[in-house]
Structures are given as C-alpha cells and as structure tokens.
Amino acid sequence: MRLFGLYPKERNVTTAEISFVPEKLWQSYKEACTPHVIVMRPYYRPNQSVMPMEDHKLGYLQSFLRHNWKCHLKNFIERIKSWEDSARSCYEEQINLRSDESAEMTLLDGIFMIQFFLMYGSRE
What we know:
Blueprint: H1 23-28, H2 30-33, H3 51-67, H4 73-82, H5 84-88, H6 99-120
Helix pairs in contact: 3-6, 4-6
C-alpha cells in the first residue's frame, strides 16, 4: 500500500495511542480543549451543550442502517465487541465503560464520522 511508504521503516504503524490532552496544555487552554458542539468519547462525557449532536449521532446511525438494510445492528455490536480488547489497548488510560457501553459508543461515534464525511465531504 502506497501510504505505508510515508512512515519510516522502524515505526510500527499497527499500534495506536489515544491520549488525553496533556495537563499543561489543558490548564493553559481549558476553554479551547473542552468540546462545545460534539464529543467523540470516551474521554468526554456528553454535557448539555453537546446533547443535540448526540441525537444527530443516533439519526446518522438510523440513516446508515436504512441504507444498508442487509446489515443488522446486532452484527455491528458483536463485531465491535470482538475488537474490544484491541480497541481498549489503544487508549493511554483505562476506559471505565462496560462492554455494552463501549460498543455503543464506538458504533455511534464511528458511524457518525463515516456518515458525516459521506454527506458533507464532497461539498466544495
């Protein structure tokens, strides 16, 4: 794959790490580092200012499932749960969510991003 040539050979591109905003940066730019419209969890819990977008995430999932009627929600949840250990290992700190919560969060956030890019990515 051509993209793998962009990384130095000694770098392992199969591992990932998702981190908190560093404390020093957080303290200096707290307002800028706090989500106000949308939250990609698990580090931030939805608050009142982002709740309307949480409803949009559900709508995007419903739209996705309507357009992919051969795909069933149960199958997506089961597949995500099969990757759970690997996904959790990407985070810098332990994620305190039950398995069902983690799978739901991953599905909602992931489908939202995919649907958003499909719907708005081609606009110039």
